[in-house]
User: Fold this.
Amino acid sequence: MKFCSECAHPVALMTPPGDNRLRYVCSQCGVIHYQNPKLVVGAIPVWDQDGDTQVLLCRRAIEPRLGYWTLPAGFMENEETTADAALRETVEEAGANIQLHDLFSMMNVPHVHQVHLFYRATLLDLNYLAGIESLEVAMFTESTMPWKDIAFPTVTETLKHFFADMRKVREGAPFGFHARDIMKPMRAATE
Amino acid sequence: MKFCSECAHPVALMTPPGDNRLRYVCSQCGVIHYQNPKLVVGAIPVWDQDGDTQVLLCRRAIEPRLGYWTLPAGFMENEETTADAALRETVEEAGANIQLHDLFSMMNVPHVHQVHLFYRATLLDLNYLAGIESLEVAMFTESTMPWKDIAFPTVTETLKHFFADMRKVREGAPFGFHARDIMKPMRAATE
Assistant:
């Protein structure tokens, strides 16, 4: 941020009176430009048949992580709920018809100023179709899942929790809710 | 938003190519200024003694809802996790020492572009002290709670769920996780 979005005056990075953090502040009109984390919301679209659980993934057609696989997800928009966002992103990226269930995971990613939410969902039919942000859309079981080519750690963590919970659910347990923090990997001490 | 924060040129409200929403776009440098919902995160600080469950509330010293009671909560900051935010806000607004437990509620408030999260917490001592954003800090049981003077519907909903869960917890059940959408009240049809 270089200029005030209200008056076009250059902003300065400073700690406002009564605050304890650096903010972009306009010395002309006095506006403080707060910057806050964004929500990324998505779904875990599940197709369950003959005891074979498959999850729908999208291969990314855009950066970051072009070519890698992800659950359908994206930035939540103003005026929508988290469930609205999960449904919308699943339609936009995978053209998939889903029924949404409970929130399954919440993953903090503080170094990129994001919180990721994933809802469990049932895939209602197999008429999915890659949207413009996806190269392809496909379904995977736990064993066919492209574990080494998943785009984001929050998706890997969510999928691992999902398949672990599925084993318990088959024995009568309910699904859990999984909250995790994904911290920036530390460099090895010898580097 | 009136001016581009990157180049100070006036922005226009338009739907960028490949998008389907109005955004503030700079015709000079091409930057699209996305605006997204913010997270408000707080705690339910509980003092439990002799079967008497009290919850700590703060009376707001600032607008909006000056003079009304709220759980300690505020806007999540970049570089922190949701749990960090709940702890920080509880210290800032109530000077309270707490131990944080699981996420208890997630409330969408789409008409103000917010998602509110509340964590259950144990108050570790009674050395709390109103911060500069609070007029006073006090503990209430379910029956002494100032129900008509609660600042925000997300706080009322969270407190109602909390006391309802407490009755089940005393009989051995676990706490639930409560997700709700608080929609803007519709005007009566006759108005």
Notes: The mean pLDDT of chain A is 95. The CA atoms of residues 108 and 181 of chain A lie 5 Å apart.
